[in-house]
């Protein structure tokens, strides 16, 4: 294995074309420098330098080594900073998972934009999938963090950070009788047909809607489920049924859908959790969570 110290000495000799000048630049005596160069030639098995009247010149092999050594030494100079950047979470890749509904909250876009501005050398890769798939990806380390609507058990090696509780609102087809009201009670929905975001894709959102309906004294009549929240609103706009959605979705189909707040004392909520591994010690993840906590007060 080549010694960087020997390569540096060789490069200086070629640049100076004089052993004495090179030794002065390297702050060593001439005899040790000469021995070092001889040892380098022995290790490589080729002659690297020849003495000419105008000074020391590299051989053809020496010229090739000079060019390669310059590149290697330049790269080696930056290695400490590269290592420090990695240890501080300033470079690399952060893999982020999110469900369709959680990804629509404005906090997520603000966080991703701010993180990119603060850590431009970190590549962020987004993966959208259902809750269970994201948990599997976290455990297999395909994901570093994930935004879900439901907490997870710590028994499986993951931990929750509760981010916020987003209000949920009523989505009604244009012309629906309940659209005449400014606010709606959950009990007003007991005879309505519901279209919901499929449970296998968004377990937390689905379960929260059912729970709030049960608390209001009825079980919702679900006539159709959709694979994505936006697809759910397509069904509402088509007049197939009504739905309960996170407030961050209030701009979708707003010419075909009427959105109303709830007037109940206990209003339905759609929480967002950040899920990470229990033993996660990555600086990238720590930086991401720290930035999230700084931005959170601006969204409440």
UniProtKB/TrEMBL annotation:
SUPFAM superfamilies per record: Periplasmic binding protein-like II, Winged helix' DNA-binding domain
Claim: DNA-binding is one of the keywords in the record: yes
GO cellular component: protein-DNA complex
Keyword terms of this UniProt record: DNA-binding, Transcription, Transcription regulation
Superkingdom assignment: Bacteria
Pfam family, one: HTH_1
PROSITE patterns reported in the protein's UniProt record: HTH_LYSR
Molecular function as annotated in GO: DNA binding; DNA-binding transcription factor activity
HTH lysR-type domain: residues covered: 2-59
CDD domains the record matches: PBP2_BudR
Family (UniProt): Belongs to the LysR transcriptional regulatory family.
The protein, known as: LysR family transcriptional regulator
